[in-house]
Amino acid sequence: MDLDKLWRLATPYLEKNDFGIAHTQRVFSIAKQNFPVKPDLEDLTYASIILHDIGGSTIKDQYEKGPKIAAELLKQLGCQGDFIKQVCDIVGTHHDHPENPSEPFRVLYDSDKLVMFTPKEYPYYNAREGFDWDKTMALIYSKKGREIAKDWLAQRRKEQTQGGK
């Protein structure tokens, strides 16, 4: 799959989101750097990550509009039925927390949670009344992801006490 072309097609939609396309780029980067994906699942995983917030800024819009937009963009790349359905299923449920998720779902989910601990997004969530970082960490499926979250949270808190970001 031509991921560069998918990025180009998705960009106008992603730029409209709260954190813009940079959020999706951060999620993609976290996934690539921290969660090895089986070669036969790379297209599904990375397409799902690129398209996960395609429907808009709210979860409702992402779930209702996202799969339709994702399907159209994937068709433009020549993708077929079952692949499109799998991506759209992930896009349309990526904030859910199923008991036994597929590998592509898990990689997206954990990366989308980890992005909350990055210097660019941490201040937004940390400023929310009653936001529970421990609960967010507990939702991460992989042990590695939870360890990264714990490390990044400690870094953000240290930066705060030092008057940094």
Task: Give a topology summary.
Elements: H1 3-14, H2 20-34, H3 42-51, H4 59-64, H5 66-76, H6 81-91, H7 103-114, H8 122-126, H9 133-139, H10 143-161
The CATH architecture category equals Orthogonal Bundle
Q: Residue share in helices?
A: 55-70%
CATH fold-level assignment: Hypothetical protein af1432
Globular, elongated, flat, extended or rod-shaped: what is the shape? globular
The low-pLDDT segments are none
- Please work out how many helical segments DSSP would assign: 10
Strand content: under 5%
Distance between the termini: 37 Å
Helix and strand content put the structural class at mainly alpha
Rg computed from alpha carbons, rounded to a whole number of angstroms: 16 Å
Mean pLDDT: 93
Give the total of beta strands: 0
Mind telling me the CATH class?
Answer: Mainly Alpha
H/E topology pattern? HHHHHHHHHH
- Main beta-sheet strand count, sense and barrel state: none
Counted up, domains total 1
